[in-house]
Amino acid sequence: MSNPPLFPDFKPLELKDREFIHPRLWAYQPATSELTFTNLFIWRGHYQPSWCLADDFLVFLSDSPSDPWLFPPVGLTPRADLCRRLLAWLKEARRAPDPRLERVDRRLRDELTEAGGFAAEARRDHFDYVYATTDLINLAGRDYHQKRNHLNSFERAYRHSYTVLTPGYLEACLDLAQKWCAIKRCEEDLNLMEEWEAVRQALAHFQDLHLIGAAILVEDRLEAFTVGEKLNADTVVIHLEKANPEIRGLYAAINQSFLKQAWPAIPWVNREQDLGEPGLRQAKLSYHPHHLEEKFTIRSA
Questions:
Q1: Is residue 278 part of a domain?
Q2: CA-based angle 141:138:254, to the nearest 5?
Q3: What span, in angstroms and rounded, lies between the C-alpha atoms of 38 and 25?
């Protein structure tokens, strides 16, 4: 892209923007799951993202007409002066009722705390769960006893095989996601409907987004799939994971197999946030995260 949009002229995020945006996100080596082009793109129905450059920093706007907010500017420090300008712009130009930066990582939080003039609020519902890859592959020790039982039960009960996710399997993945939605009654839950749209977008643009995925075939039928990519040099982020909920141990199988086959040399796995949903929080905690990647809301003090 020869002429990227310059602040305050934002443009809606499009697939063709990946060529410009992805290298700049990668150069930042983010620790939070939102700061991948894939995440911003497949969840654009939720975030309504627009973007621009401001002083050579990438700036993403969640462009809600009633409540706009900004992601943390992406680039090398210092960013305090830019953050002041961005918050002032939200308040004065966009008339935001609550001008703020959301999904702010610890790196920027610490910088702004040192600079002064900002208030930081931890947002537990948005903390990412980060696991040691070896823990999820080996499932060793008492903490993973139940997971091993589920996995062993699945392996004994079903004829199954692992496969790399290729375009030929994408339609079957979509069918499985539809069946999962029917079982979970997605139409009654706005969050599940938005997730369903994110799944559709990831599968529809799987190759263009340069994603890596895997599937498990049970009795020659695709019953689980997962999709991820490298978040930074030491971390893989899992964007999607779906399995037939009626097959015991299948989630444990796709989780373990994907890491073992595709990412054994990557030390960490970011499995994103729980959004405060009790069932999802319990499921993520049951895999015993190594740590939670904190995120913050930043406002002018």
A1: no
A2: 125
A3: 11
CA distances from residue 25 to 29, 60, 255, 278, 301 in whole angstroms, order as listed:
7, 12, 26, 31, 28
pLDDT tens by residue, 205-258: 999 999 999 999 999 999 999 999 999 999 999 999 999 999 999 999 999 999
Handedness of CA 80, 273, 287, 28 (dihedral sign): negative
Same domain, 100 and 146: no
- Centroid of chain to Cα 3: 28
Query: What would you report as the CA-atom Rg of the chain, rounded to the nearest whole angstrom?
Result: 20
Give yes or no for a contact between 245 and 279, defined as CB atoms under 8 angstroms apart: no
Residue 132 C-beta-side C-alpha neighbours within 13 Å: 7
> What gap in Å lies between CA 225 and CA 241, rounded to an integer?
6
pTM, rounded to two decimals = 0.96
In a domain, 259, yes or no: yes
**58: in domain:** yes
Between the alpha carbon of residue 6 and those of residues 53, 78, 295, the distances in Å are: 5, 19, 27
**Could you tell me which residues come within 8 angstroms of residue 124 by beta carbon, excluding any fewer than 6 positions away?**
276
SS3 80: helix
Q: Where are the alpha helices (DSSP H) in the chain?
A: 18-28, 37-42, 44-47, 80-92, 106-115, 133-138, 145-157, 170-184, 190-204, 250-262, 278-285
Tokens of 4: 């990227």
pLDDT in tens, 107-166: 999 999 999 999 999 999 999 999 999 999 999 999 999 999 999 999 999 999 999 999
> Is there a single domain that holds both residue 112 and residue 154?
no
CATH number at residue 156: 3.40.630.30
